Amino acid sequence: MGNYKNYKVWEKSHQLVFKIYGLTKNFPKSEQYNLISQMNRASISIPTNIAEGCGRETQKEFIRFLYIASGSAHELDYLLLLASDLGYIESEISKTVISEIDEIKKILAALINTIKTSLKT
């Protein structure tokens, strides 16, 4: 599987973690164990699962971890929408970050499809 740091999707998701942490630090303290924690954990889950998948023995295992990373990206997408609707994040900032998440989801899907195709040949 190789070095996870060589994957563009890992780098993008790693940078996303910093953005999410920056956004959530301004949330109300009442959300510390709720929305803040959930958003931070979902963001961390994306690059973490890519890295863990790279450490697995087979391509099928790698794909499984890429799916988990994709699930976390979808979760974070919703959490950003919720945070925006609650007034914790400006709508335009939320849209920009959701756009970045959409790109990560697309790259993950393409990587999964590429690996699946290589397994068939």
UniProtKB/TrEMBL annotation:
Species of origin: Flagellimonas yonaguniensis
Pfam families attached here? 23S_rRNA_IVP (PF05635)
| Protein name in UniProt | Four helix bundle protein
Entry-linked InterPro entries: 23S_rRNA-intervening_sequence (IPR012657), 23S_rRNA_IVS_sf (IPR036583)
Q: Which domain of life is it from?
A: Bacteria
NCBIfam families xref list:
four helix bundle protein
